[in-house]
Amino acid sequence: MNYFAHAVRFLDGDPYFLAGTATPDWMAVADRPVRVRARLALPVAEQDPEERTRQVALGALQHLHDDAWFHATRGFAEVTGTLARRFREHFGPDDAMRCGFLGHIVTELLLDAALIERQPALLDRYYQRLREVDPEGVQGAVNRMARGRTCRLSLFIPLFLRERFLFDYLEDRTLLARLNRVLQRVQLPPLPDTAAELFPDARCLVRARVGDLLPAAHFGTVYG
User: Fold this and answer.
1) 187, pLDDT greater than 90
2) Where are the alpha helices (DSSP H) in the chain?
3) Beta carbons of 61 and 42 less than 8 angstroms apart
4) Model's pTM, two decimal places?
5) What is the pLDDT of residue 220?
């Protein structure tokens, strides 16, 4: 799951909890060696004297829990497998590692896109709620529950809010640019412009499988 799928159920809750649902993904961009860990977040969520710190920890735990069940669903296995195969057919069998990664990440980004398409106003709401948090406070909470310490997260959060790059997932050209940034971070070759030819069919596939990717027990109240 990506940012919006993690957060969409919690837009009316505590903004620090909402920020917590983003922290594992934020750290993967802002300071990759510093990883949020459930075994460290749990005691913070249960015992920290500061409410906002507890809420960040609870949100991070929610993110980790959701990722675990999402990646175990049949829908995720089938959609990522189909997309990986289509990328291999396009780029050739020698590109298997990148194509496998693309099957995973494209599924997650297009799932966010499918949810945004259904109720675009909720993405504006997401950014509005995150503007209520103090980036330094979120960073301090993360430093209580991560392997290692960061001083970069408080700088990244305002950038995340300014760029609003989740909107880029809605168009093939800007989606390609975002994917290439992800590939650069993980040291894989960038995609050529021809890769965008695969996106319309990929969008149709993910739209058709939203109900398999996000079980109604978790998301029915928002996207029933």
Assistant:
1) yes
2) 3-7, 15-30, 38-47, 51-71, 74-91, 96-118, 121-130, 135-145, 153-163, 172-185, 199-208, 210-213, 216-223
3) yes
4) 0.93
5) 53
